[in-house]
Design goal:
By secondary structure, this protein is α/β, with parallel strands linked by helices. It has 13 helices and twelve strands. 43% of the residues lie in helices and 17% in strands.
Amino acid sequence: MKKAFVGLALSAVLLALSFPSEAQQAKKVPRIGFLAIGYDRGPGVEAFRQGLRDLGYVEGKSIIVEYRWAEEKFERLPELAAELVRLKVDVIVTGGGGNAVGLAAKNATTTIPIVMTVIGGDPVASGLVASLARPGGNITGLSNVSPELAWRRLELVKETFPKSTRVAFLWSASISDPSDPGTGRLEETQAAAKELRIKILSLKVGSPDELASAFETAAKQRAGAVMIPAYLVNPYQGQIVDFSIKKRLPVSCDTGLNVEQGVCLMAYGPNILALYRRAATYVDKILKGTNPIDLPVERPMKFDFVISLKTAKQIGVTIPPNVLVRANRVIK
């Protein structure tokens, strides 16, 4: 009887101990906050999710992702970032929106690790990180900025339209940071233009009317092409297509996604989907104990040159064969 009692007591103790252990295990499912400027899951978000799956994570089981969409309203970002902080997520991932999304996350927390996926501006100049090699604080991730991009994009435009001596560059003051005049990309392109002996028509755009006026000016000044940075393409996609066809002006963009969407004729830039997939590896390292301060911010390593022959036909231009053969993807 005594042995039986001891056995039952021991079993009861072991059973009691198992419940908190199981509860602790249940609480260990990592929770990721995904803060984005857009409306819903796009190709970039799906690439990030695929990156998690490639690392063995099963969303909803071994990892939970809390998505927050600002719906292109920059003023909502601080509120959404604060909401993720209140949820006590383990990591915050930022997507799109230039530096604005990263800054909103940074202002919301100094302790929760933050992983940037696509940063359109210079993360050092904007104050997001101290340096690329040693970001400092709780922020790290990927930047889609590379020093030679402006030169390379302009060079490809010149090779595609060799008879043109003028290229229009559309730019805008930052709508997410009043202290940012939005001229960084313009200055980089102007510097490249001096080397390539091309005149840049600087055209500021802050509204649909100014966009229409910019295309009108570019056409009157006989620009060979119009270069538009990503932060201006996204809010004006439909109008850009209409003006490009109406004025017979080819548009050069930052990302192949805009070419695939039919917005631009050509694009040279980082492979955005590769950056989003790569962000998953940063999340994985942080969840396994790596401090963000020890993870350098990476510059893009994979670039795409995409051309749309369908768009070329719509606006009545011909792409030289020597340019076509250099494209990673040609859309017919």
